[in-house]
Amino acid sequence: MDQALKKRYAYWEWRTIIVLMIGYLLFYFVRKNFSIVMPAMEAELGISKVKLGIFLTLNGIIYGLSRFINGFIADRVSRKKMMALGLTLSALVNILIGLSPALNGVLNLLDGDGKATMGLIWIIGSLWLLNGYTQGMGYPPCGSLMAHWIRPSELATKQSIWNASHSIGAGAVAVICGFILNRWTYSAWQWCFFVPAILALFGAAILLLGLRDDPASVGLPDPHELDREDGFEAPAVKKQESEEESKAIYNTLLKEMVFRNKIIWILAVTNFCVYVIRFTILDWGATFLTQYKNMSIASASSVVAASEIVGGIIGTLVAGWVTDKYFKSRAHRTCLVGIVLSTLSFFLFWKTPGNLPWLSVTFLIMSSFFIYGPQALTGIAASNQATRRTAASANGIMGIFGYASTTVSGAAFGLIAHKFGWNTVFLTAIVFGIIGAIVIATIWNAPADGYAKAGKIIGNMKKQDRQA
Fold it and tell me: Residues near 191 by Cβ (< 8 Å), separated by ≥ 6?
């Protein structure tokens, strides 16, 4: 490939990564704002921790199901349109949540003290459940687009760069909502839904204008061709296939490389455990820092933001670089190291005395630093193991396991915190960290990807067709 073509490919590759980062961080603006607003909703509307935890759990379960369903859809439709539609719908749901108390005159949603009746609780809960589905239209297009645009030898590094969008989005919305609540008090909680929603609508337009679904759509070669030219092991670029042949290959790979692939299921169980720790920090951080560590809401939201922006971004980038540089793209090995160190850091955060707040904050940020590597790399490993043809489908399974973790980190932790206190919550999160480390350790010797296996499967299919 000549230098002009390589330069053009690099432009489109980085354009895709940057636009996906902008789009996905704005998905977080209209999802993780809820976690920062929870103390305000508890104080202003009288919604208990248990109910708020149930909202988180139902949202997470629906989100996981949505990622699973949309993972299959994303392998078949325009991924940029799916992602833009999901962001638009999520923004509209957030606006409706902010407007919901205005219906009080019609539906009697507030009692005499201005607290939420069950009617308002049902409305907010139902809308947040709907938001879970629309949010599930975000990740599958991202995973599929990156598998199509980025060569396998660089996927861990470059997808880790994209994965920083999680932390940028969660951290930035924590700062925005923390500022709103600190400047105008908890009574301004609705603006924590309005402001992110408006920004998300602009993001949907950027996705539609900035993305293309694959290199071929702009006259560029398959990324595997670049790997082969640079001396990396890579499958031969697929020849033109008929629609019937392509569908048959996809169905076979879906069965063999996803549903019958034990590595995918081990990664999925690991992902469940990783997300328990991640969501303990992200969803409950603002609450347990104010209630257990006695911080102000402004300080607590700043710590959560620092955990995401400083810990999550740097941790993700370092994990991706280490995977490609030292573990030869074996993402599962980096996952094991990250889970162990994150669990240890969270334990130290828990046990740090209350008169050393700076040390508590340091350990919490370290836990976020180490957990975001596995959070990103389990999905990257699934993409590589399933190959790009079924990457979105494999990540659908990862999503449903990851967000099924909200049964623990959401409703269960809300109930545990209410009944037994935060110490029991922290202990439970640590136990899941230990389980995750044990599970991922069982595939330490697994290959970096499944392309060789997929090539044999396709070869056998074509051989059988010729013999028939």
Answer: 98, 180, 184
